Queue: 4 jobs
Job 1
Amino acid sequence: MRRKITALLLGLGVAGVSLLATSGSAQGHGYADSPVSRQQLCGNGTVRNCGQIQWEPQSVEGPKGFPAGGPRDGLICSGGNQRFAELDDPRGGAWPASAVRAGQSHTFRWRITVRHATTDFRYYVTKDGYDPRKPLARGDLEPQPFLTVPFGGRLPDSTVSHAGVLPQKSGKHLILGVWTISNTGNAFYACSDVTF
């Protein structure tokens, strides 16, 4: 009897370890808060009816390799994660937008809840003529990031800030921040609606 109980407990332990090892990413990592991201707007209650993202704004993780890889068009703001599909909903173009100044320096900031070895942070902006009433697609973005901050595999602090010059734009646009992790197959995505 003792041998059967020991074997059962060992089997349950192995199953538990296997489940943890194969369950994917840990809960919570980081999000952009300058300019304020959609997930932060949901997390702080500024925007309602956000689903699960309101409880875990730091969890917008998806495959890395953007723009050649990564989440598919229409699912970019959620990182391709269906649990956070509300981030891909353009809400008729009514997401609150941060006021920014074209051609001026801006301090971009991320709040990091779980630190990861980092390749870089990259920022893309939508092209002129962008329609904020439609889900974000690659074709909506300028092909090259306007700012890339290399990290060389280092661990970021709990708050990461870096300055960059905003592109020459006018009107409502979207800035996509991509935090690429160096030692996993994933990146974190943050969509920030802005008005130049």
Job 2
Amino acid sequence: MNNFVDETYKRVEQIMNANNLNIKTFEEKVGVSNNSIGTAIRRKASFKSNVLNKILNAFPEVDPAWLLTGKGTMLLKDNNFYSEEPDAVYKNEKLDQLIKTKLIRLLSEDENIKDILLDYIQKEVKNL
């Protein structure tokens, strides 16, 4: 069994530091309730998935795999995905695919999660 310790709060602090944001400003940018991030950091608590999604939406340059696991680097290699250029839709789709691919790869490394994912996929295929 894997002795996983969730230290996502440390990586959230790194994002705040890299962007020179205090907790209040970070919470406003992410769109979460007042002091929810600060409380989680002080308690060294896990973040719910909806908060992690809000963080990734507010900071699209942050590598989701890094945020979840600490593996790799904070920033995506090509941090010019989001843009106002005419090909922005293509770039956003490319980023979405990259995120999905990285998350699937990470999740499939854990045997328990891999089994859960396979069961889920099989149920979904049967419902098609």
Job 3
Amino acid sequence: MIALIAHDQQKPLLLQFVREHRELFAAHDLVATGSTGRLLADELELDIERVAHGPAGGDLIIGGRVAEGKILAVFFFRDPLTAQPHEPDVSALMRVCDVHSIPLATNSATALAVVEWLKLNAAGRSQQAE
């Protein structure tokens, strides 16, 4: 399962990124915080499990799933300059991802690296199945 979160100002960037890599994201189970998930589902017609909005603890729900071993990668497009007080903080999610060695992309450059890692990971699983 891949997790998707974005601060308000970064939602268009995440939407564009997922659009550009739609085939990869469509091949995975997806979970997202409330409004991010709604945006991605509405705009890209992806099947996305939506948890609570960020301010209501959606990022914590995703963090719990990371701890349970249910998340393969997290894409949290955060706004480092103008994040609003109601938006989720990446610190706790970063900590749990680090503890469990789960890749966490916080911008489009690291997201691209994680996409490439996911492709390699999928290729490795395909070769093991043969």
Job 4
Amino acid sequence: MLNYPQIEILLARGNGIVDGLKENAPGAEIVAESSAINPVEGINKTETFLQAHPDMKVICAIGGGGAVGANEGVKAAGKLSKDFGIFAVDGTDQELEAMVNDEAIRMSVLNTGKPPKMAEVIYGYLEKMMAGEEVPHIVYREMIPVTKENVDKYIQSNN
């Protein structure tokens, strides 16, 4: 598990991932957990994980930066195989490219969409605020799972 408890929202995201694992994969064992927010941290932590747990087959990451680094660490360690998977949140271009290239990243979750889509949504709220319209105080973002099966829709359209 590559988490980042230094930021409250990412601590909650990490806890949610762990809760989801326990619920959906009750036989899974979390053998290592460390903080990684960017590719450099992701690769370093993954190399350490794989040295201590060479039979490990799954890495969950709270963000795309750690996931991209984990992907590089898996490749460098010669562990890239059909039964190894990295699962993350953010859907960065690098994550989606790794899916297209059939690397270790198997799924990432977009929140609302890629940056142009998020900018469109935020701009819409700003327009409403400027017009004196009420906007919600709590905004729920759409969660979009991206896998090899639908990655072309998101990597090409930039939604």
